[in-house]
Amino acid sequence: ILNVEQSPQSLHVQEGDSTNFTCSFPSSNFYALHWYRWETAKSPEALFVMTLNGDEKKKGRISATLNTKEGYSYLYIKGSQPEDSATYLCAFNPGNTGKLIFGQGTTLQVKP
Amino acid sequence: GAGVSQSPSNKVTEKGKDVELRCDPISGHTALYWYRQRLGQGLEFLIYFQGNSAPDKSGLPSDRFSAERTGESVSTLTIQRTQQEDSAVYLCASGPGGAGREQFFGPGTRLTVL
Question: What is the tens place of the pLDDT at every residue in B63-80?
Fold first, then answer.
């Protein structure tokens, strides 16, 4: 069974707080790890795609790391803003296929 | 440029009826994916197309579900004899294809089966 686990399920923080979420995935037959942001009433939007063990990617205040040997990725948000409120989805490609297996997501609410 | 579009945005149907959901991918994207999200659950893979053929249909939940793609463009997901457990948001995505490539999602179709 190919399972992606995300934690926490939900998170409430104050504006300005930094936060991080965890994604764990099967380390065997791994090809790539994706992070998406899904805001209410919008489409999921890609944040990062990572393939190599030790990869670190950054986009503004958001960054992600990847450990393929132990099967986990962290997403960090520095200085959270209300516009960061969304569900953050982690997904992986199980082998060399475009198919994505998603976790259930972490829903972040940032209070002004 | 135009993104992925889906129609209808909302569909309410009665149990037992057939429904068709449409996806218009980004022009030039060879790969097209269907996913769904049932209430309280994560996004679930259904099927993907590379060109007009479907190398992986493993996520289709039953033989009531089928999908086709024509002209390496529009795709239709058909659900026959709908059941209440089919109620979900159905999302379509397109991309250049292959693992490790970004997928671009449409806004989804919210299907409610009464």
Answer: 999 999 998 899 999 999
